[in-house]
Amino acid sequence: MSWLFKDPVLLAAVLCTWLPFLSMAVILIFTRHKPQLSSYISIGAVSTSLICALYLLIKLVHVGEPVEYRTAWLIADDIIIPFGYLFDPLSLLMLLIVAVISFLVQVYSLGYMAGDPGFSRYYAFQSLFAWAMMDMVIAPGMLQLYIFWELVGLASYLLIGFYYEKWSAGQAGKKAFVMTRLGDIGFFLGLILLVLGFGDLGIVAMNEAAQAQAIPSYLITASALLIFCGVIGKSAQFPLLTWLPDAMEGPTPVSALLHSATMVAAGVYMFSRIFPFFAASPTAMAIALAIGTITMLLSSTMAMATYDIKQVWAYSTVSQLGFMVMGLAAGGYFAGVFHLTTHAGFKALLFLCSGVFIHEYHSNDMRDIGKGGGRSLKIPMVCMTVGALALSGVFPFSGFFSKEAIMGVLAAYPNKIWLLAGLLGALMTAYYSFRLIFMILFPKKVDATMPHDAVHYHQEKDDKIQIDHEEAAAGHGAAHGHGSSHGHEEGHGNVFWYMAWPLIILTTITLVLGFFQHSLEGFLLGHAADAHGGEGGHGAGHYALLIAAVSMGLAGIAWAYYEFGRKGASQEGFLARLPKTQALFANRWYIDRFLRRFLDRAIYGGLTNVFTRNDRRVIDGGIDGFCLFTIGSGRLFSFLQSGMLQYNLLVMVAAVGLVVLYFVV
Amino acid sequence: MMKWVLFIPELYYVLMAVVFFALSLQRKSEPRRLYTWAVILSGVGVLVAVLSARLEGMVFFDAYRVDLYSQVFKLLLALGTFWVVLTCSELEGIDSRQHAEFYLFTFICTLGMMMLVSAVELLTIYISVELSSYCLYLLVAMRRKTDEFAETGIKYFMVGSTASGFMVFGISYLFGMTHTTYVAELMKVLPGMMTEPAAIVGLVLALSGFFFKQALFPFHIWAPDVYQGAANQVTTYIATASKMAAAAIVIRFVGFSGGESAVFIKLLVVLSILSMTFGNLVAIIQKDIKRLLAYSSIAHAGYMMIGILSMTQRGYASAIYYALAYLIMNFACFMVILKIADDGHNLKIKELAGLHKRSPLLAMTLMLGLFGLAGIPPTVGFTGKFLVFAAALEQGYLTLVIIGMINATISLYYYLIVIKAAYLLEPVNPYPPVRVDKWTKSLAIFLVIAMVYVGIFPDQFVALTEAAARSLFI
Amino acid sequence: MNFMTEAMAQAAFWIVVGLTLAGAVIAVFPRNIVYNVLGLVLALTGVAGLYVFLGSMFIGLMQLLIYVGAICVAIVFAIMLSRPLHLEVPQRKLPKVLLAAMASCLFAIALIGVSLRTAWKPAAERGTDWSVATIGELLLTRYDLVFEVISLVLLVAILGAIVTAGFSRRLTS
Amino acid sequence: MNTLSTYLIIAALLFGLGLLGVLQRRNLIGMLISIELMLNGANINFMAFNRFLAPEPAVGQIITLFVMGLAAAEAAIGLSIILALFRKFRSINVERAQQMRG
I need a labelling partner for B102 at 20 to 30 A (CA). Which of A460, A611, B366, C103 fits? Predict the structure, then answer.
């Protein structure tokens, strides 16, 4: 083991990626019955990971070349499949994002999941996720990436299905798993194609070879498209986008962690990971651009029609992922990654805020939350507004900068239709996010008698002290905390603040991250700038574009205000007047129904039925017949008289006979 | 002149059979003592197989070849037998008065299969197949309280006999075409004759006998019934050890064609696709977990066939690796079933509810085993599928591989049903806790480690299987 | 004279063939199991005759000994032991019989097609040693393993029959 | 005529008849009888190839011999399973069997 301690970077990397695994094992094996201890172990592991990730970032921030620790996994002499660690700006950044959000979400879960019977299990799965995600992020080879990619999917299945008592949760978990696996078929095939055609699954090698045109272009296009199928599945792109809203059946922190900030971004991450490889195939890029655009527009429309608070953010996640794919596919490496970063922050924020509302009001419906007095929960309300502003791309929140970056890339694209789509998307995004905000903020009628926990909380005495304490600790606390009167029950004093703290931290991140655009750009592109030829021009020179984008966002907000916010607004929205369109949007453009019908009819209903019927008659029939015999038919060997075995044999003989006949003729 | 050393593993199993024959003559049957003896003897059997793994040579006037290929499979067989015997501590499915015969037939069956993988002469192959089949017919028919499943034995017997009739008929055509019964000569002559109908029909008919053992569509018809109707231990044995022998002999026989006949390959492709699709689709609706695994085994025969029909060395190696993987994964699943249903009844999926509380270790073993079967990394099943698909893609069977992948996804659905039952469901009525003795515990831990280790570090195993595949055609 | 013997041989051959096929038909079609066994005996005897025509008296005798002498007797015993079996003569189901007939016809036609369409080539050097001594020698040399294994097979069969049919000493059913 | 193809055709016919029996007989012993017919078909093949094609006349005969031996073992096992089944039925269902007679 001494080799491990000789190199602090490697030590940090190993600690960073394997501690969560250790914690999962410890929780599952030893501390299943001690929920508090389990959560502390898990949080301890992930916070160590966070520290290690920070250390790695600081240590390696100025290293020019990517740092790689790897051992090759040889299947045959001519095939290299590396495993180990790869640190370059992209993976370091993503590692940090994962560590930060995992940490915050786990802390938040202390409050949100408090008292849940499966508390230990929940933290074990969280650790499993953290481990898988981090190992995926630092993978130096595509196969390692794929393996952990699947493990991430497994963790997601387990976490979505966490509320197993709910039938729909189990279904959603399965749907998510199977649907993403559907995309992974393509991914896996792409990898096999690459192994056979190129022989090296190292990411660095792949990227370099693709740029040096050492791989034939048809191979790049084919494998890039296949690999992109994986992105479609994981990042919920069209047509596999419907699993993500359903995945919201899981606990809200899970949605925040997996289904907005990290796991679903894995697809986009993978895209940017082998960006030069993709970039070597214009066809693949064009298709990715189209799919990203379709996804973004479709899911934005879906978000306009739902009243479920988590669903809105889920659709929004899908649309923002589509937006990232657009940015990347249009050639904006930095723009895509930057939006990924900022989005991770503000979308996690949005989800966690929604989680507080859901926790307090036991409802996912934003009308209920509004009526119940959601506006009185000041911290989450303000934080959520900040998040929504960021999402809408309003200055000076982080979303503004990253959206501008992508818009800039799109504007540089010769065909302006993508830019128009982007602007339309921005308008819709602002509209649906503020539709939600205004519905909670300005409910038509506050139902004060509605029984909910929050009422009790408000009457607690000691909240002021808590808040003061918090104000003293958090520099910007004054902006959010003043006069608010939320609280918590006696004895659960920490519960609310476990949930509030991560919100405040994420809000801060959302507020300041945008100003680090240039240092991030330098960091990300510094070493690869010559490779990508830079992405100069975006943001800076396009004042017209800037104004257009911001005004789109503001217009969306204003529109939402007109329909939902102003006094005496109908709160119905224009969609209510277009019932057909609303039905279309609310039913997810019937994608789900189409897929299900396709699956049900074609596969389950058709083939399985045929086989089942055959099977019943043929195989079960024997037993049925036999049971009949024992009951009353009284015929010896009646199971044979019904001819089941022989019907079976008949099929076999006929099949072989036909084959023989075929060879004769 | 005779190098008896080469024959030692088989001789050892003959010895074991003799021991149990003697024990079966005792007036009183003592299950515990028989179990101890069986465990010790079969454990030594594994050791013997390991020690003789590097032997090479020909015995019995070139009718019997000992090489890496055969020894690898012998090791797998010995291992499978040992594992199955190890789980026989509660042999409730078999009348306690017949335990000695149970072990006797099991060991003779293993012996037959060991000879099957080494035999390089058609008559020897035929006799070995029949020897093992007869033992299996008897083992299946042995189940106690068979009122519900009385016809299982006869179904197995009838289908098996018909298939073996096909096989003999096919072998007769092969004999007529090539005038020899020696595999080595057959492999020289036969590829040049693949245009003759009799040669290819003979091969297909002969293969159908082995497809029967492998439960490949359309020779699968016995599998669900037998899996469901046989005693749990016997099902385990059929699902693990006997599948190894079937894979070995199918690889050998498919190799006869030398890849000369495109039609033949097409036939195998079709069989493989049908097998996968049929197995996976029907498995979805199963309630009895053994029946579910039967359909899954049909599907897996299809996956294995993908590697075999590539007809390259890498393809055969991948199929061998897949067989190894299948042995471990499938046994892991069955071991859990055996331990939960320790009174020998047939387990329904819903009876797994809350398993993760009753026995976390078994639940984990089951989960890993099922994930392996579904081909999820980083388990050994993933590596197996990867190798098999890679071998097929190398030969350009893209459609086949895509269908295989889609099937793997479908299969995930029903594996998840089982995993969900084990991990996420709560039992309606509390089931009694599962008794897990220390042998089972250590075996479970070993299996878990093996499934992950062989999956993550397959290089040595791949090298081994490739060497074995090479020795197939020397 | 020569012509006569040849014609006689011809006639005898076809008679044997006819016996075989007729026996086979009787073994398959009648619903009474006793007729089936008699048909089987007939067919097997016919096959033994064919073996004689194929130049091997030894195998023909073995056929009579093993099949007719052992297997058929065993079957008769089984019929006796399971007495009600022959009493059952349920009606046949026409669709099943038709399907079975079609499938087996298909199979037989395919096989006949195979045997007719294949260019069977005799070996370059044909041995002429038909003696039983050679068979015995080969059994002890080249087919040594098989010879030994079949004893194991028979052992399994005997043991299995005892255990399964429930005549074991330990089983007092 | 006494040629190879005559024998092969007879063998195929026997095999086909055997198959027919296996597929349509309801009596288990009848099925077993049919399986014996199939094996005999294969045996005729071996003997015919042995007579007309093979280099060594002994090989085909030996194979035939062994197939016979195996057929005997198979019949023994099959009959014992059938008998076991029968005993089971009788022990469960004597009453019914008698009722049916009446």
Answer: B366
